[in-house]
UniProtKB/TrEMBL annotation:
The keyword rRNA processing applies. SUPFAM superfamilies: PIN domain-like. This is rRNA-processing protein FCF1 homolog. It is found in: Nucleus, Nucleolus. Pfam families: Fcf1 (PF04900).
Amino acid sequence: MGKQRKTRKIVEKRFAQMKKIISLSDNRIKATERAEPKKKKKVDPHEVKVREVPQASSALFFQYNTQLGPPYHILIDTNFINFSIKNKLDIIQNMMDCLYAKCIPYVTDCVLGELEKLGRKYRVALRIIKDPRFERLACLHKGTYADDCIVQRVTQHKCYIVATNDKDLKRRIRKIPGVPIMYVAQHKYTIERMPDAYGAPKGAI
């Protein structure tokens, strides 16, 4: 017997077994054990449809974030640190050169955990973020996946700028109104979606 015919017979046999199963609403089942027939809900054409829209932060006014301002609070992602090392950029100094103001870099526990998991190859990155000028943010969630943690933080608190070179994370942050993104491009830091009032570099938005 050919392989195709054999598999077809097995599939047909299984299908026949599945067909034997009686549905819970069948008349042959006792009235006490029988499932109640589903009632079709009548749709009223004149009924007002209610759409739930996520509430925008009170810090936003026409997409302009009033919680942003010097000193800037910058949430750093794992690959942003690695890109800075590859391009031989001093993180704090270049942040200040980009924004023309004092910057406070923030590192979450999950970012630290990600770097520790990467091993000895990334010991330079670990040494950099353990600098006392870098503020630590405690994480209460399980695991070390930093992207979800960063997205959740910037959704709740609009005072952060996200520093990342991760395309997927950038895409997710762009969906959140009023959150600027800092990234490494052409051996320097660039920022996008920064309000004009704060002197964002031209061509970065």
